[in-house]
Amino acid sequence: MLRFILKKLLYLVPTMIGITLVAFGFIRLLPGDPVLLMAGERGVSPERYAQIAAQLGYDKPVWQQYLHYLGNLLQGDLGNSLVTKKPVLTEFLALFPATVELALVAIVIATVIGVPVGVIAAIKRGSWFDQFSMTAALVGFSMPIFWWGLLLIILFSGVLGWTPVSGRISLMYFFPQVTGFMLIDSLISGQKGAFASAVSHLILPSIVLATIPLAVIARQTRSAMLEVMGEDYVRTARAKGLSRRRVIGVHALRNALIPVITTIGLQVGVLMAGAILTETIFSWPGIGKWMIDSISRRDYPVVQSGLLLIAAIVMIVNLIVDLTYGLINPRIRHK
Amino acid sequence: MSFFSTRMLAASAFALMAAAPLHAKTFVYCSEGSPEGFDAAPYTSGTTFDASGHAVYNRLVQFKPGTTEIEPALAESWDVSEDGLEYTFHLRQGVKFHSNDKFTPSRDFNADDVIFTFERQASADHPWHEYIPGITYEYYSSMEMDKLIKSIEKVDDHTVKFTLSQPEAPFLANVAMPFVSIVSKEYADTLETAGTREDLNNAPIGTGPFRFVAYQKDAVIRYQKNADYWGEAPKVDDLVFAITPDASVRLQKLKAGECHLMPYPAPADLDEIRADPNLKLDEQPGLNVGYLAYNTTVAPFDNPQVRKALNMALDKPALIEAVYQGNAEVAKNPIPPTMWSYNDAIEDDKYDPEAAKAMLEEAGVKDLTMEVWAMPVQRPYMPNARRTAEMIQSDFAKIGVKVEIVSYEWGEYLKKSMEEGRKGAVILGWTGDNGDPDNFLSVLLSCASANPGGANRAFWCNEAFSDLLAKAKASSDHDERVKLYEEAQVIFKQEAPWATLAHSTQYVPMAKNVTGFVQSPLGDYAFDTVDLTE
């Protein structure tokens, strides 16, 4: 097992180097330049421009800049934001828990609803439930998130007044951020009503973020179940006279879950992409919004190191998924 | 009241009892973005200035609320020498800096703080010049304070003398701007000793109406009323900025009572706001201009008659309806009507496509094809440049001029539009920094500004016009300055380097129970005068 993990970790190294190259190149390929954007309509004199570029090291050839960046990375220095002048890592760590909290709740919602819906749709294939849920999944999958988020805000916060519009907790609560996870911090704070407020603030954004993964998971579960239900071992289990519940729950579902878990793992990337829009709509202080702001300001250090951190996390989550995979399917572990 | 909000209220009542520091009056402002930091000097965005300069700090002088007139602030009075080169500020005594958990001031504000504030920006050798790696002072250098201020001298603890390298009337307006917010030298010394210099930017200490409490990145900024404020004490106890970048969401929050006031509503939402019985909408002409700048160095646009003819082809009222939804007024001068020295006697070019066509023919221009550049971003002065370009395109088509619309990424746009020999006319605009006409006319239209690094996108260099500006800048006689600028506007209108398009209106939606908010013509959001009625 340890060898398996080490081997997987080793595979990450060349991928990470590739990502530094892509992230570094990508933001520089975009037209526009941070110094000009900062100066705005007023403009900046060529002398001043040269001075700032030299100060930031942008007067050097790109390959030198890249090597310099790599060198700093190896020493654990991810650089400083051009806009806030703060270390990228500090900013990332301040914002990341908010994204994790939102993404975790979203993936839990997507899984807890998506898997049962997929299973029921598969065993009741062709029923009204199957047709309805799969149509809903198709709609969910194609949902423009920005529009969907605003619609929910206007309905549930505006018209009905059931949920708060945006933010992570009601502004009347003010306590130190211990973990950065509002659900936990609000409990630790001991302030009455803080946890309830944090939960109520999570409802709409997590539903919005869960929408696409939920649709994907439900469809994937359904098709995996359908495939497995036709397998010999399921027929054997049935022939043995096992209860329908046992056949579906143990023999079919456990095997069907393998591709579903892969799908859930892959949704982490989708969640990161969805977080950008969801966080912007719900004023959620996470890394999605941070990346978007930084790209539009051409904040090179934040974009290149932020992408690297996000990619690293997506890869680690996928690694964990691979390991879970091994738990469910021992054949993979032994290979 | 819905079930949920009733419960929230009950919960909050508990919280009120449980957490002592919560006060009766909390004012929540749904701000449009995150501040870049809390030291106002290195930054240039209004969002940062609202969160730092206006809430936490004061300047030597300040703009009288709702105007661009200068009034005393940390300087109680000042004298200007005959030659206009020496400004002596007499500082207010007994002004206390804020304190926080790491710093309690041992002395009141004095001349050392003023000198520290300016010198750390002015001199690259100053130990606090680059207290954060990569930090620069863009406003200080772009307002040319580095060239203007020859020396700063401490006469005594409460008197500071600035010596300028040339007489400059807008100097007082410059030192009212947020980038020269007075910071505490004693605080800087304390941070130096503690080895936490970056806290000057993270945990600001000022003399302003509100004391900084906490900032959660991209989410919330909290302030508390400064009980020792030297001016009139704020009416609210706590001030909270709830950072909400999307305009529609801001409005939803305002309607749900999650905040009391918001900036920059979406133009399409204005009617809904007006119709809402729980909200009110404050409006004021903005200190801005949206324009189309011809390249006056390239034929046939080097001929004023051609530019004039094109201007006469523009149906500006239609443009204002389509682009600004009517929330703007037609611009005839390069400065807005709210600015002093606005020349109202000038008549705008009459909309007359037939005459325009004839003028073009007379100038020998036939089958003209030109580019119109549409900026890719929204600004208060230009909510939709693409639509503006399309309106111009159809207006010009009526006089036989073919328009091709082009656009670039914003940084590129700014750069390419200042490149020599540029093809085509550029849509752009300007919002005033300090309310001085020089801040529009010199920055946007002087000969000096028609060079790389300037912002004169018409590349228009008219000696007579520039001379008038220079004279006005050097004069400390206000009436004389008014006359000079009025004259300059006449030349501008005759020469027509731009088509002046619009001055947009600024809107501030707020809850009905908000009182005392004074809109700033400069687009600042300051809350020392706001109050909440029951």
TrEMBL record, chain A:
GO terms for cellular component: plasma membrane. The chain crosses the membrane at residues 9-30, 102-123, 135-162, 194-217, 256-282, 302-328. It comes from the Bacteria. Keywords: Cell membrane, Membrane, Transmembrane, Transmembrane helix, Transport. The keyword Transmembrane applies. It is a multi-pass membrane protein. GO terms for molecular function: dipeptide transmembrane transporter activity. Gene3D superfamilies: MetI-like. It is found in: Cell membrane. Its main location: membrane. Residues 96-321 form the ABC transmembrane type-1 domain. The keyword Transmembrane helix applies. Belongs to the binding-protein-dependent transport system permease family. This is Binding-protein-dependent transport systems inner membrane component. It comes from Paracoccus denitrificans (strain Pd 1222).
